Amino acid sequence: MNGLRLYDQCEHLLLASYAMHSSDTEGRLHHEMPHPYRGPFARDRDRILHSSAFRRLSGKMQVFTGEMGIYHRTRLTHSFEVASVARTMARVLRLNEDLTEALALMHDIGHPPFGHCGEDVLSERMADVGGFSHNEFALVIVNELEQRYSEFSGLNLSRETLAGQDVRAHKAEAEVGRSPLLEVQLVDAADSIAYDAHDVDDALQMGLLSVDELSELAIVRRALGNVREQHGMLPIRELRQSLVHELIDLQVSELLSHAVELVRSLEGRNHEDVQHLGIRFHHGETLQRERKELESFLFNAVYRHARLIPVRDSAANRLSELFDLLLRDPNRLPLRFRQRQQSHPAAKVVGEYLAGMTDAFCDQQHHYATTTPRGPLADW
């Protein structure tokens, strides 16, 4: 028995009928022979993991930019954390772990430098060419900008992986009618769960928030109650870490409890049946309200914190200045991006070049561009 046939048989035994099975893939845009012992989604995962865009996530801060972000989460560490949470849930629900992991590792690959302020700058500067969305830019990266193969541009990922990222780029449309694959839904949930919990962790560690402030929130009070019931009174460092673990576990556990009940009625149906039925995972109403309260609090108390705003504003100004400079003089773009101007508007190409940068690389190119009057900037 060859490796791929054995792989398919293992999936048949391990996965639920409603999971996305590798044998049901719609393939890739550019035909490739099947790999002898890896399924299509395992190959997608590996291609994303080995891409230069994925590596650059290590230099893109999650929330805290500049010196504030040195010891805190990057887009890379966040992606691994999301993959861990999503893969755990996929295993419980007998969904496709390879596809889940590929989607999780890809989900933030299109983020620009300097976190949300970087996206705000590019959205404003690119308004005349359709704006900027990091979820849409992720598709540009994996379909066009990554150069890993001689036969085609991009990574030539499976149609299911690309469709999952497209759902992220068009969330409003995905909320009605035909539902996304269950694996796609899990990654979206894991992203939100991990993001909120780890922003709490980083904000507490930096002293932007106190446990007392957070305990005003219902979901934090619940988590703190569980921690103290299990461990009693803890030193602040251990309390912070236990609180973050409990925030994740509380949300994952409830989502799974709802999902397990939901999928019991889906045995025997395939992934297409489930999508046509419009099946969607969700938290209960109480936890949904609590999560909204937490996210609203984080937006105002952390993302708009007085210590963070000057750093964000300074980063935004540098990115804006570099965008304007390159738009005025596109010949300073690297050769690859000058060539893209033959088929794309200049503002779009400048935005793509900047969006692919790490925080530090953007600062380096800004310094070079503003101190050297001519010559192209470096490619990434």
Please explain how this structure is put together:
- This protein has 380 residues and is mainly α.
- It folds into two domains: 3-309, Orthogonal Bundle (Hypothetical protein af1432); 312-371, no CATH class.
- It is built from 19 helices and no strands.
- The longest helix is centred in the middle third of the chain and has 29 residues, at 236-264.
- This is Deoxyguanosinetriphosphate triphosphohydrolase-like protein.
| Fraction of residues in β-strands | under 5%
Average pLDDT reading: 93
What is the β-strand count? 0
Number of domains: 2
Sheet having the most strands: none
Give the SSE order as H and E letters: HHHHHHHHHHHHHHHHHHH
Low-confidence stretches: none
**How helix-rich are the residues, as a percent range?**
55-70%
Q: For this structure, what is the CATH class of the largest domain?
A: Mainly Alpha
Keywords: Hydrolase
Pfam family, one: HD_assoc
GO molecular function, one term: dGTPase activity
InterPro entries: dGTPase (IPR006261), dGTPase-like (IPR050135), dNTPase_2 (IPR023023), HD/PDEase_dom (IPR003607), HD_domain (IPR006674), HDIG_dom (IPR006675), PHydrolase_assoc_dom (IPR026875)
